Fold:
Amino acid sequence: MNILQYGFMQRAFLVGILLAVVTPCIGITIVLKRMSMIGDALSHASLAGVALGLLLGINPVLGAGAVCIAAALGIESIRKKLPRYSEMAIAIVMSAGIGFAGVLSGYVKNSANFNSFLFGSIVSISSEELFLVCVVSLLVLSALLRFYRELFYIGFDESAARISGVPVRRINFMFTILTALTISIASRTVGALIVSSMLVVPVACGMQMGGSYRKTLICAILVAVFTTIAGLFLSYYIGLKPGGAIVLLEVAWFLIVIAGKTVKNKLGGV
Amino acid sequence: MKKSLYILLILLMTASWSVGCGSEKSNATGKNEADEGKSQSESGDEKLQILASFYPMYDFAQKVGGDKVEVTNMVPAGTEPHDWEPTATDIRQLEDADVFVYNGAGMEHWAEDILASLDNQDLTIVEASKGLEFIEGEAHEHEEDEEEHEDEDDHDTGYDPHVWLNPLNAKAEMENIKNALVEADPENEDYYTENYEKYSAKFDQLDEKYKEELADIKGKDIIVAHEAFGYLCNAYGLNQVGIEGLSPDSEPDPARMKEIIEFAKENQIKTIFFEELVSPKVAETIAAEIGAKTSVLNPLEGLNDEQLEAGEDYFSIMEENLTALKEG
Structure:
């Protein structure tokens, strides 16, 4: 396979597949909590963190992680304050993130540095980033597996979960931090587009395909892994932008599944 | 406990935000006062107010105008000008300026619209690249990927705008600027002409030096971050291969990266050039792939604060570029 003879493609496949496994695991809980847009909000917040990090002279990845966690906790707390309009929390934090990023970037002297965080691309991943993604993925995956049941309960009904003895607050807190961590690192490496879509679209496909929670999750992971691989192949052989190709494949998959279901229902009805 | 932490955090955010806004406001009022002061003394012995669209225009105008003019570079130091757009403050400055210098050839995609909307009747507008011969935009693309290669650039014209990278073109641009200054301020004609003559000789020297030193260079092929060096390459017999097209900062596609890696291997290229204002990530990825080194080749689209403080200018950067090219 000559597609794998280049180091940058090997890293792209490795990181792409890792993230394709991790993000739907986070995504399914996010979708069930009706927070599908959180990926966008947090990736913008992490941008503000990058600018802040560059300004304060600390490591921008660290800055992005910190601001991302603060933003995610902010979303959680606003959601608690306004339970009826909980989707507003995401909009508010996203605006704050964009605003901060815009204002702070005006003070960043070296725009190349800033741009290199802005335009993460799956085909230009360095070895350090590969390492970072591996560590974070393993951490997130093991935590999610450990608390699989709890997250399952919380995803469907928080109050019921609380009654049956799940430490909802603590689990929510941990989940928020894991989400923030994943998004801040992944959007730096592969770009915000891939991350925020991969949190939601494969899960949407999974919901249409699988029946149970577990089946949905497995389907979502399969969709994400498959579209990532196919997207990289397509971009390699026909010269498409990899990020866009992967996301479009995911959306196409979703549309096909929906169309397939509609046709099946119609036929069944007749 | 946690609740109060959140509140503290949000308070902090709002506080720092309003501080930011406050300082901006006071800046703006400061400028307003300055403007009023200026308009009062307009009739007096005032320096010519020049706005330049980005660094080389600023540098050339400053060199010709010397201490008779006050030149402002619209694009802040360290910012990549391709994606830059003027803010309301910039447009107000344009209303107050005497001369506006821009490169043209599609470099400033915003210029046309904004110039049309200005009320400033006395503004002398200089399109510095006027009268130069342009290279077609996509001249350096490889034939095979012509169809697939959607150009990401938002230049209105199909031309390559980076004319100033050939010293002789730069000289012509400076001449255009000189002519405009003479037109706007005929009293100081001799002064401007004298300055222009001085630098025109320097441009010629630079050109000679490039010709001499690049004549027997082995590697005629160079790999650059974006195809900014068309005029330079044409003038001195080099061949550029750009990782990106005419504009930097679009996501590279792996097919293009593979092509460049193979090209570099075939031609035994030892150096991948990148620019200071653009992320070096892609250049580094490619360099690591073929075991080459990376080195800066500055398209002079803007300098950062450190370079400005160190007194770098068009000539010193072009000398650095020459050194980099010889080593590459």
About this structure: The two ends of chain A are 48 Å apart (CA to CA). Residues 242-269 of chain A form the longest helix (28 residues). Chain A is about 85% helix and 0% strand. Chain A touches chain B through 40 residues (CB under 8 Å).
